[in-house]
Every structure is written in C-alpha cells, then in structure tokens.
Specification:
The protein folds into three domains: 215 residues, no CATH class; 119 residues, no CATH class; 482 residues, TIM Barrel (Alpha-Beta Barrel), CATH 3.20.20.80. Helix content is 18%, strand content 27%. The protein has 18 helices and 45 strands.
Length: 924
C-alpha cells in the first residue's frame, strides 16, 4: 500500500497578530520539501510578507514617531536622540604678544576660544538589555570611558537619570521605562567638528541562561608575553616611535583589562578563573626534556615593563621555534605581569586558580628520535601527554617495569627544593642546581603566587598520561609518588591554597595495560589520598554524543531527534560510550559495532568505565595483578575528595560533542576534527554542550550525591572550568592575524569569546512570541544560532519570524492548541494511507502532484545578512547550482547578525531544499 508522508500537517501560524490561522505553510511531500517552494517567487499562491528590513542601523536620528527597534542577542544600532539640552559654550581667554623687532614694548593680544559641550540621551531599543559593548562615533570605534555617560538598561522600574532630573526638575523628568537608553553628560564636541557625532552602539541582550550557568573558566592562551598584564605596555619601534604591545582595542586599557571586562559582563555569575601559564618542553623523552620559559624574539624593547621570567631575560631565555616564518607560540608570560593579573583577579572578586602548563615546542623534522618509534622523528608540536620514558613502554629496551625507571623520572622532575627559592625585591630568586625540571617550574610559580598574595587553588601539573603509568619492578608508580611529594612542597609555600593535579579524563580513574595481563591499577590513588590534595582534578573532555549524518545510525534510530537535543546529550554524560559500551577498534566505530563494558571476574564494570564517576568515588578501590583482585584496598577513602573539572569544553565545530578533546591547529600533528565531523563551524553545539554539562552537574541528586565525608556534592558544580576564555579581547582576536598567528584556529576551536551572548534560534523565536503576547507555543525542536536579530519597526509576529523561518528552514503550525515550530529536516509528522483520505470530488483525483520545471527553479541562492565579525556591515553569500539551464536567482534577506560560515551553510541548504522541494501536492 502506498503511503503519503506529510511533512507538516495542521494549520500554519497565519497572521499571528495580523489575521486568523489558516494559511498552509507545509504542502510539499517529503521530509525536506517543507514549504520552501511556497516561499520562492515561482508559481501561484506565493506568500508575500514583509519582515524586518536589512539595513545598517548606524545613523543617529531624532525623529518624532520613529519606531523603536527590538533587539535580541548582540547587535549594532544607533537609536534616536530622545532628550537634549542646548549646547554648552565655554569661553577660554588667553593673553599673548605680537609685534616687530626692537626694544619697544609689544602690545598684548587677548585670544578668546570657545569650546562646546553637549548633554543628550540616545534611546536604543525596546526592553531590557544586559549591556553595551563597543561604541562608534562617525564610523570609528571610540573609547567612551573618556566621557561621562550612563546606561539605563530599559527595565520596567528604572528611575529617571540624574542629569535629566537636574535639568527638568524633580517629578518632571521621564524615566523612559521599558526603553534602554544612554545619557551623555558634558560631551566635548571639538573632536567631532562641534556637532553631535553619529553614534552607534553594540548592544547585548541575552535570551537564555547559558551565560549565567558559567561560574568558572580557564583563561588562556598561556603563551603571551604581556597579554596577562593589566598595565599597558608599549614596544619601541626605533627612531622615537612606539606601538602598542598589549593594547589592541579603542579603549585606553590593556588587552587583559578589556577581555576580563568582557568576561565579567558576559558571565555575570563568574566566581573563579584558572590562569594558564606555559613553559616549553623540548623533548618527549622524559630523561632528556628541559621545561623552560621561552621568548619570541631577543631584539624587542618594551616600556614601562621589561620581560623577565624565573631569572631569565630576553638574552638568556631560549627562543621559541618558528613555522613558515612565524613564531610557533607566544612568549611565556612575564613574571611581573602574572603577579599583576592575579592581583587584578582578586580585586575583581574572581578567585584565581593557578594552572602551570607545558607546551611542547618540537618543530616538524626535528630529527629528535621518537621514544614511541625510535626510527622516526618526534611529532610536530605534540601534546604533553605524549611525554614518556625512553624507549617508551612496549618498545625494546624500555626501562618501564624495571628499577631503572626511577633514574629517568628523577631527571624529569629535577632536584629543585623549596629552600632553593626566596623572594627578594619583588621577584622570585632561585639558587638551586642549574637544571630545568618540572619541580623548578612548579615551585617557582608557587612562590610567585605567594608574592601575588595567594591563590584559591594551585595545580602541580596536568595530563601527564604516559608518565603517571610508568612502573618500577614492584608495580609501583614513581611519577605519582613524585607528584605527591611535590604537592606537599607546594602546600608549604601556599598553605591556604587547595592543591591538586589535573588528570586527563582517560587517566584519573585507573590504568589498564593493554597487554592481556588483566592488570587493573588505581595508579593515582596514592596522590588522590594525600592529605595535601584538596580536590580531585579532572580535565573532562568525555564524549557526550555518537552522532552521524542522516537518520540510519543507531542514536537516530533510537528516537533521538538530533545531536542538539539536551536530553540526548545529558543521557551520554553518565551513559553511552565509556559507560555502557566502547568501540574496540576504529573499524568498529565506523560500523557502530559497540562492545558492552562488563567485568565477568568481579562484577564491577565501573572499574573500566571512565564515565562512572559516582561508582569510582563511592567505592573502595582494589588493584588487580594478573586479573586477581588484591585483598586490601588502595589508600583511597570513598567520598573523601570533591571532584573539580579543571577543564571542560567543546570545539565550535560540527559534531564537536562526539570528541570534545580534539582541536584544529595546522602546525601540530595532534590536529584533527571530531569523529564524523564535516569541519563546518558550529557554535550551537558548543552552547548545547555547556548547557548539558552545567545543568546536569550543578544539581544535587542521585547522579551527583552528597558526601558523607565533607559538606558538598561529589562534583563541584560551581567548579567546572570551561576552556575557555582568551585574554586577547574579541574581536581584536581572532581578526588581527598580523598580530596573532593563531587567529584562524578560532573558527573551529574551543574559544568562548565572541560566541557567548549569541541568540539560540529556539530562544529567539520564543522571545519574539512572548514579546507579542503569545503564551502557548513550542520552539524546542528548532535548532540554530544567530549572533543577533533586529525588528526595526511595527509588524506582526509572523512578519518578524518569517525571515528566520526562510533562512533556517523551519515551519510553524497550529496543533493541539499550540503554536509548534519544527525543522523541515525533522522527519515525518504523520503518515497517512490512501484509505485515510476522503474523496470529495469523484471526478477529480484526491492528490495532484506537480513538478516545477527546471527553469522556474533558482540557479543561485543569495543570502543577505549582517556580518557581526566585520563591524556589523552588510554582507552577502551565495550558493550556485553548477548544472542545469535555470537562470533564476533567489535572494533572501534578514536583519540577522550571523557569521559568514553560518550564512554560507544556509545558502547551500536553501538551494538544496528548493530543488528537492520542486514536487508539490494539491489535495482536492
């Protein structure tokens, strides 16, 4: 029996405010066809709605009756002058002399100059906003901190401005409630030609609570010479000229200050931040590595600060390698700048955590033998987790599992002692052995944090995954013992700080040698049980999805609607891969051949589950040698330490949640995309990852129980340190590529800058409906992200939503008394057989299928949008069909602020949808 699949049954969201429900949005057959064909310019019955207009709202006006725009997300608008006084004129008279030569007295000349000042208020938009960001005057970004100004955010109970009260009188001054506006007081007009400048403002209005859920972040890049300095530093360019070293915004503050201001205004509930500071390792062989500060160049002269780290200066510090004529990393942060950064965080009320970080500066073709494969050179710019003994375990001649392993491990840590460090003249002085082991790095920074006034927590290392598993001949783990000793030494220097180690998510819970021995070791328990350890640190990049394109893969077949579904993501936080099952090989992953995680010997499958944090935390741990469980447990005491996620994050790339730990960096051999990713930028999956993780772990419950040993839950929900926030302010980074070579990595990377504050499509549509008085609706099924959206004049809700529906391929219908919005690719809503249809006209067929001819379909789809990455200028992208005879164009426009990549993707989808929807069905 033939079956007719209807994509969207029911009635459309007709006129919202403008008319009755009844216009059918979905008439096409097929899951992708939707109503897109009805929204082109071809054929009868075309809808013509005029939504918000695409224009640059950058011209300041003062027009009676001008519409007040509504804004969502982040936008750039100018607004209207809603109040002003006459210009203030200030005369300045000075006396001079003029005349010829000679001894006679010269006549005096009085010169009177006039300066003009303005007092005025600019109405921005309807409704309450969070903040304003950048400000432009006459098209140029300006630092408005040099002026006296005040923002009224448009709340329903805001009070009149003090200046307006002073001029209008008490009780006569309007409060402009429900309208966001800015007041300028005594604005000097000379630099603007003695006139009001054309002002425009970057306005932020959050639509959901993801930003509020973020309480902790990692601040990086870790390698940035003066990038952490609140003090502006300049670089000597010679011949008397200087240029900014760490100031790349219009504001007269350092990049650090501008970026942390952005962070605090974006994440209003931020409590703590981890400051990442990097030294550089030069060899993956632990007995040969030197871990030292690095410098980009020797010939740089800076003022008022000069670079110095751990007793090294520009002359004595090692130079960082170069790739393609550019330095591979920035310099290690200047010691004095780190002190000032810690002080600044404390002054801002942000609890600082110190995170010493090892970056591996090993260029391609280094000719340094790889301990994992001695016949090959070491990989280019590898992960620190690759550091191991020489040769590596399972290689011929390896010292692993022998008494000789301690010699190599001692070389890695070095012999620096607490007594080798002192504080003198505002610096940390070292007088120990001339060596560069891990102990020297960690103890140097412990003393530097002491000099800065202390930190809330201090990490003694991170992700040394191939080091912590090294064993001696007695199955002991000397690296873990050395870390325990180091933690005790740091605790001497920083007795008020919490000390820990940031273990990789694949490392924290145990070691299971892949050698068929059946060994199970809880190898870090000696460290976790130490009285000097304040919490369990985990860099949590566990996968929380296993998504593929199409609908034939297992997770889609199990009823999960999309990778963005919050329930799907949360089910995989303590379930799915790494909990219920694993892939035994890459081939199994391709075929989705999942192997259940079991423990036939002792019925404790949790010992193999890296996601089973609860069982690991609640139970005693028993090592197994040769598959036989020990009679006595390890030193770990159940529920004795809280767990912090010292890192967590997701790259903003297609299917990022499939493999959150990977990153794209062309210089590194570690660079890769997540499993099954197309490489397309996807800010929305990053946002969904944040929401899934925070809403899951910030709640106490059976999944996150209270401890019987300390006051608190298993996971500290307020100590999920997201990776991360760049100390280089957006949009200077990533777009100043002549300053920072890693700018291109931003597009698919883990950065939050410039992404937080965006408007999720479902929240945007919901907010528009709410603003128009609708209360019964469902928008959860539509997915996507725009940076911002503007409704520029009075219109119906349907007119406001329609441009978004066109570009982002969703439809609205009335069903069961609700307005429901669905993606066009969401699959069938209902299936009807021919017997379900009633014949009303015997002389006509129940269904008439029509197929549009090729020349009526577009050869090119163009999308006009506002590019938020280019000072909010108008931009256009297009997609073309490379074959066929059509000469038609389809142009879509919307006042949506979206990224160029996002717009390009939508154009391709629109072109594909139009052609796939060329067949329509009429029902008689």
């Amino acid at each position: 029996m033939a079956t007719l699949v209807l994509q969207a049954a029911g009635q459309a969201v007709g006129g919202f405010l403008g008319g009755p429900f009844g216009a059918v949005l979905g008439r096409a057959a097929g899951a992708m066809a939707g109503s897109f064909i009805d929204q082109t310019l071809f054929g009868p019955g075309t809808r013509r709605l005029e939504g918000p207009r695409l224009k640059e709202l950058h011209l300041l006006g003062s027009t009676e009756g001008a519409p007040i725009p509504k804004v969502y997300g982040r936008v750039r608008i100018s607004g209207q002058v809603i109040w002003a006084t006459r210009f203030e004129e200030v005369a300045n008279t000075r006396t001079g002399r003029s005349g010829g030569k000679g001894g006679a007295s010269q006549p005096k000349t009085k010169i009177t100059e006039y300066a003009y000042y303005a007092n005025f208020a600019v109405g921005l938009c309807q409704g309450e906003i969070n903040r304003i960001g950048r400000v432009w005057a006459d098209g140029k970004e300006v630092d408005i901190s040099q002026f006296v100004w005040r923002l009224h955010n448009g709340s329903s109970d805001q009070q009149p401005d003090s200046l307006i009260i002073a001029r209008q009188g008490q009780g006569e001054a309007p409060a402009y409630r429900g309208t966001a506006y800015v007041v300028f007081e005594h604005l000097p007009l000379a630099k603007f030609g003695n006139r009001l400048p054309q002002l425009s403002f970057e306005v932020f209005k959050s639509l959901d609570d993801v930003e509020k859920q973020i309480t902790a972040v990692n601040i990086f890049p870790g390698a940035t010479e003066f990038g952490y300095d609140p003090l502006p530093v300049r670089r000597d360019d010679g011949w008397g000229g200087t240029s900014a070293e760490n100031t790349h915004t219009a504001a007269a503050v350092s990049d650090w200050s501008a970026s942390i201001d952005q962070l605090q205004s974006t994440c209003e509930n931020l409590e703590t931040a981890s400051l990442v500071v990097a030294w550089f390792g030069n060899d993956l062989r632990c007995n040969n590595i030197a871990i030292r500060p690095g410098i980009e160049r020797r010939d740089k002269v800076t003022t008022p600060a000069q670079w110095a780290v751990a007793g090294l200066d520009r002359v004595t510090a090692p130079l960082i390698s170069q790739r393609d004529g550019k330095v591979a990393f920035g310099s290690t942060p200047d010691d004095a700048s780190v002190i000032r950064a810690i002080t600044d965080l404390n002054d801002r009320g942000i609890k600082p955590v110190f995170y010493p970080f090892i970056l591996m500066d090993i260029p391609a073709d280094s000719q340094i033998p790889d301990p994992h494969n001695p016949s090959e050179s070491q990989p280019a710019y590898p992960w620190r987790g690759r550091i191991t003994c020489d040769p590596a375990p399972n290689q011929t001649g390896t010292p692993d599992k022998t008494a000789n392993i301690t010699t190599q491990i001692n070389a890695f840590f070095g012999s620096a002692q607490v007594a080798d460090f002192s504080i003198a003249s505002g610096t940390v002085v070292y007088t120990g052995p001339n060596e560069w082991g891990l102990r020297r790095m960690i103890l140097h920074y412990a003393h530097l944090c002491q000099l800065a006034g202390g930190v809330d927590a201090f990490l003694i290392g991170s992700e040394l995954t191939e080091m912590t598993i090294l064993r001696d001949d007695q199955n002991r783990f000397p690296v873990v013992t050395a870390l325990k000793t180091l933690a005790a030494d740091v605790a001497q220097v920083l007795p008020a700080s919490k000390i820990s180690y940031a273990a990789d998510w694949s490392e924290y819970f145990g070691y299971h040698p892949d050698d068929g021995s059946g060994d199970v070791f809880f190898h870090l328990d000696e460290l976790w049980a130490s009285e000097d350890i304040g919490f369990i640190g985990i860099d949590n990049y566990m996968p929380i999805s296993d998504w593929r394109d199409g609908s034939s893969h297992i997770d889609a077949q199990n009823g999960h609607p999309s990778i963005y579904d919050i329930n799907y993501l949360q089910q995989n936080i303590a379930g799915g891969e790494g909990f219920d099952w694993f892939y035994a090989s890459s081939a199994d992953r391709q075929l989705q051949q999942r192997t259940a995680i079991t423990d036939g010997a002792y019925g404790k499958p949790w010992v193999y589950r890296y996601k089973d944090l609860k069982s690991w935390w609640q139970n005693p741990h028993f090592n197994r040698v040769g598959g036989v469980e020990a009679a006595t447990p390890t030193l770990w005491q159940p529920q004795s330490r809280q767990i912090w996620f010292t890192e967590a994050g997701c790259p903003a790339v297609d299917k990022g949640s499939n493999q959150p730990n990977v990153f794209v960096d062309p210089k590194s051999d570690e660079s890769r995309l997540p499993h099954f990713s197309s490489g397309r930028r996807d800010d929305f999956i990053q946002r969904k990852y944040i929401r899934a993780l925070t809403s899951f772990w910030q709640m106490q419950g059976d999944h996150n129980p209270l401890s019987s040993d300390y006051a608190g839950t298993m996971i500290a929900g307020d100590r999920i340190f997201f990776w991360g926030w760049d100390a280089r302010p957006y949009p200077a980074f990533p777009f100043l590529e002549n300053v920072w070579a890693d700018g291109p990595n931003y597009q698919q990377g883990h950065w939050f800058n410039g992404r937080l504050g965006a408007a999720p499509l479902n929240a945007l549509v919901a907010n528009i409906l709410s603003d128009y008085g609708f209360a019964e609706y469902q928008t959860a099924e539509i997915h996507g992200l725009v940076d911002g959206y503007i409704i520029d004049r009075t219109m119906s809700a349907r007119q406001a939503i329609d441009p978004l529906a066109q570009i982002f391929s969703f439809d609205g219908v009335e069903s069961e008394g609700l307005l429901k919005f669905r993606r066009r690719d969401a699959g069938a809503t209902i299936s009807l057989s021919m017997e379900s249809l009633v014949e009303t006209k015997p002389d006509k067929s129940i269904i008439n299928l029509k197929r549009a001819q090729e020349t009526d379909l577009p050869n090119r789809v163009q999308i006009l949008f506002i590019d938020g990455d280019d000072n909010y200028r108008q931009a256009a992208v297009e997609a073309r069909k490379l074959t066929g005879q059509s000469q038609r164009d389809l142009v879509q426009e919307a006042p949506a602020i979206i990224s160029h990549d996002n717009a390009a993707d939508r154009a391709e989808i629109a072109l594909h949808e139009t052609w796939q929807g060329r067949e329509t069905a009429d029902f008689t």
